[in-house]
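In the design runs reported in the main text, the only information available to the sequence generator was the tokenized backbone. The following block is the verbatim input for one such run; it is reproduced so that readers can re-run the procedure and compare outputs position by position.
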């Protein structure tokens, strides 16, 4: 059942921590769109932490399998928007700037990959005494030589112990069953397991019985109208020929899609109360399809402008699973 929720009911006093997570940012047009959208989300939803997956931030080559990655200039623009930490995936090491990118402590790459590859797989964001641990994992379906993701995560949780207040996991992979299995395996131990990589947003936002927020895929933030943000030509060619594509990889040119979720932590801070999708397809601020009530927060006087924004909540499951 769909219900309209008045803005005042969403924006009342409260102190629950909020994490805004944005999925696979794909290409320059997505970055430009995010430069317009993220300040609105930050003003309106006031997240305490902003984490983004940016493995497709830049196009650095002609093939979809290896032609993405990040650049220092692109990362600087993200950090300038208030992004706290950047995650990656199978494209973490694409492009000529990979070594430089991974010297930045605000960038993490899959934890369950070779220790000899540049970068680190986990990071901690510290803000106002709260320590948020972020772990990046990759599935073997996305990176065939990856180690077992659950083993790597459990080792990291043991290393951190009580030194972090909450943990968010970006699990980058194809398989919904694998992502859910991992989420259930650590249900109650981490605040959220958020899927990335497919670039397709899924509607299964839920809070598991132990309090772990989950979504199979956050979805990309990138150009629509194509195939995972990419013009379909090389993929169609390859499907027909069963050979590597000869056509160069180019990005799609449709309207930007925003894949993003807002996770609200419980009072203890260790688990989650809710997970909701944010969407801005029409330039307004909309909250839709979520699980659990959004923790309420005071609206500052200078935020009065937002009262004109269209706000919609599609009722999600509030019961466990
Ligand atoms: Fe990926
Ligand atoms: Fe991606």
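Verbatim output:
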């Amino acid at each position: 059942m769909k219900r309209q929720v008045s803005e005042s009911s969403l924006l009342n006093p409260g102190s629950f921590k909020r994490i805004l997570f944005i999925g696979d940012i794909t290409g320059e047009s997505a970055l430009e769109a995010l430069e317009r959208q993220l300040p609105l989300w930050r003003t309106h939803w006031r997240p305490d932490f902003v984490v983004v997956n940016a493995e497709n931030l830049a196009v650095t080559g002609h093939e979809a399998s290896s032609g993405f990655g990040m650049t220092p200039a692109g990362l600087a623009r993200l950090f300038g928007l208030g992004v706290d930490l950047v995650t990656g995936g199978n494209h973490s090491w694409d492009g000529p700037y990979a070594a430089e990118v991974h010297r930045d402590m605000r960038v993490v790459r899959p934890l369950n990959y070779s220790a000899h590859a540049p970068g680190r797989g986990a990071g901690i964001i510290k803000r106002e005494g709260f320590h948020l641990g972020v772990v990046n994992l990759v599935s073997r379906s996305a990176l065939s030589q990856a180690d077992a993701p659950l083993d790597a995560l459990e080792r990291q949780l043991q290393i951190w112990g009580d030194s972090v207040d909450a943990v968010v996991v970006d699990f980058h992979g194809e398989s919904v069953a694998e992502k859910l299995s991992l989420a259930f395996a650590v249900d109650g131990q981490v605040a959220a397991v958020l899927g990335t990589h497919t670039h397709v947003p899924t509607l299964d936002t839920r809070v598991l019985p132990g309090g772990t927020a989950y979504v199979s895929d956050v979805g990309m933030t990138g150009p629509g109208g194509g195939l995972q943000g990419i013009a379909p030509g090389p993929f169609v060619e390859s499907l027909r020929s069963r050979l590597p594509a000869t056509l160069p990889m180019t990005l799609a040119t449709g309207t930007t899609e925003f894949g993003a979720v807002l996770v609200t932590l419980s009072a203890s801070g260790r688990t989650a109360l809710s997970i909701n999708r944010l969407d801005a397809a029409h330039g307004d601020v909309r909250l839709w399809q979520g699980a659990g009530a959004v923790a309420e927060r005071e609206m500052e006087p200078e935020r009065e402008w937002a009262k004109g924004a269209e706000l919609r909540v599609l009722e999600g499951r509030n019961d466990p699973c």
